[in-house]
């Protein structure tokens, strides 16, 4: 059985305060985009071990046991005593890009196991499981435009459609760790709250829908800021870094022919049309 985990982009991201537990409260909008991995499971009753992970496509660092799809399988296995499986994961979503690729893989694994083995878990139950794997994992259960607050784990549905807009996502050959991105963040209440700005026309977002991480990441990695500037130069209506980086996306009008640009050695570029 196969499924196709997709990414999210962040529309605005305000770091509002540092919590007593050391985490940060934030506000953002998660928006799904059809840049996808491929994830397949096959029951293997003859196997001597609970799981085997076969990884394809982009290289993933770390041991298989630490991969979020494996953690998702083991999480449900504790309660439902699942049969041994072979897991095939084809990675097309770049890591360290602020696109939630690993979180999406984990959430889609939960949904895949639920369907394949008829576990009869509701979306709310799946969200509870997903939340234990990562703050934004639960978003990918319902996978619809969502306003997020808290540490990115408190969700509210929003009415927002960008259907028809063209999108370009560029990730240079740079990895930005979440810890690194937070290092120079100064929490504050935004002048333009994300929830209010998102109701305005996209053409008004440029100076009001802000990703706070840009202020700390761009000075360290100027190439990321340069990509944002170039997307605007090429006609983007709105451009922003996604999450804590290092990818940048640009939204273009539906009738736009997206530009052909050499973004540099080992840079990743995705072009598509939004369907939500």
Automatic annotation (TrEMBL):
Binding site for ATP: 94-104
Alphabetical GO biological process terms: isopentenyl diphosphate biosynthetic process, methylerythritol 4-phosphate pathway; terpenoid biosynthetic process
Xref: SUPFAM superfamilies: GHMP Kinase, C-terminal domain (SSF55060), Ribosomal protein S5 domain 2-like (SSF54211)
Positions of the catalytic residues: 8, 136
EC number: 2.7.1.148
Pathway participation: Isoprenoid biosynthesis; isopentenyl diphosphate biosynthesis via DXP pathway; isopentenyl diphosphate from 1-deoxy-D-xylulose 5-phosphate: step 3/6
Enzyme class: transferase
Keywords, alphabetical: ATP-binding, Isoprene biosynthesis, Kinase, Nucleotide-binding, Transferase
Pfam families hit by this protein: GHMP_kinases_C, GHMP_kinases_N
Stated role: Catalyzes the phosphorylation of the position 2 hydroxy group of 4-diphosphocytidyl-2C-methyl-D-erythritol.
Protein name: 4-diphosphocytidyl-2-C-methyl-D-erythritol kinase
Protein source organism: Bacteroides caccae CL03T12C61
Underlying gene: ispE
């Amino acid at each position: 059985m196969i499924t196709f985990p997709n990414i999210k982009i962040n529309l605005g991201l305000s770091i509002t305060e540092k919590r007593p537990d050391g985490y940060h409260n934030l506000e953002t909008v998660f928006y799904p985009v059809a840049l996808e991995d491929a994830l397949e499971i096959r029951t293997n009753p003859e196997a001597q071990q609970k799981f085997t992970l076969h990884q394809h496509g982009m290289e993933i660092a770390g041991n298989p046991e630490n991969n979020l799809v494996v953690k998702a399988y083991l999480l449900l296995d504790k309660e439902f005593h699942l049969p041994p499986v072979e897991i095939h994961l084809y990675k097309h979503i770049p890591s360290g890009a602020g696109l939630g690729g690993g979180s999406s893989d984990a959430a889609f694994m939960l949904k895949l196991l639920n369907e394949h083995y008829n576990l009869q878990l509701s979306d709310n139950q799946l969200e509870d499981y997903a939340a234990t794997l990562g703050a934004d994992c639960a978003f990918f259960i319902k996978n619809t435009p969502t306003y997020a607050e808290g540490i990115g784990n408190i969700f509210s549905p929003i009415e927002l459609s960008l259907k028809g807009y063209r999108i370009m996502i560029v990730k240079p050959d740079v990895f930005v760790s979440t810890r690194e991105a937070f290092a120079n963040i100064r929490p504050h209440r935004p002048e333009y709250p994300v929830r209010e700005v998102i109701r305005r026309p996209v053409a008004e977002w440029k100076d009001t829908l802000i990703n706070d991480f840009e202020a700390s990441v761009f000075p360290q990695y100027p190439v990321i800021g340069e990509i944002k500037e170039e997307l605007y130069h090429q006609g983007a209506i709105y451009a922003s870094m996604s999450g804590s980086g290092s990818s940048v996306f640009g939204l273009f009008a539906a009738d736009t022919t997206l530009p052909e640009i050499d973004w540099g050695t080992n840079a990743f570029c995705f072009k598509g049309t939004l369907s939500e």
